Amino acid sequence: MKNIKNPKDIFYISVIALAFLVAIVLCVRYRNGRTDTGPDHSSVPSLTPKEEKVLVTINVDTIEDGLENMGVLVTQEYYFTQVETYTKEKKILNFINSESGFTYSYDGKVTAGIDFGKVTVTKDEETKTLNVEIPYSELQGTDIDMDSFRIYSEKESLWNSLNIEDYNISMSEFEETAERKAIDSGILERSNDQAKELIRNFITNMPGTEGYTIKFEQRSNPYES
Predict the structure, then answer these.
(1) Cα 58–193–210 angle (5° rounding)?
(2) CB neighbours of 188 closer than 8 A, spacing ≥ 6?
(3) Which of 17, 35, 88, 155 has the most other CB atoms within 10 Å of its CB?
(4) Is the pTM of this model over 0.90?
């Protein structure tokens, strides 16, 4: 092989060798970088999205206004068939009892409900409680179906005849009897329960009432003596 003695040739060879060495180093670093999991973000602070909370507060006046707009609602109905007996007694010659009479029946309906405009609501933020005071249910109407009126089982004594004038029961007596039986059947208590359920559903569907406990307070029964 020819000896390299020219200084220029030695310089060129040195440059080529250095470039070759740099290329080898770059290749090694490139291969090592490919096996890395990725850039190190440990020193970069993480950014969390800012949560914006919208606070919705419940206004008891809004609840009361909504309930007042509902007005008087019938929450229970009592259907009945009333059977009564009319008797006419008479003494013959002051010592003989004579009795005549008949049985009659009629159908009707009694309704009960409350005035939602009389409902009051207060709020306790510490206990997260909505206190609802409601009036006691009242009878809202009595409907007697006069077309259903029937008379049967007549019993008439020979000396004590029945006349149409003898039978003079007024409509008010029909209604009083029907209302008394409706109350005895528990129509007012059922109406109270139904009214509470309607109010509870109304309140819980309003925004801002989540997490509140609803407590009811019933006013006194107007039909109790």
Answers:
(1) 25
(2) 76, 112, 136, 137, 138, 139, 221, 223
(3) 88
(4) no
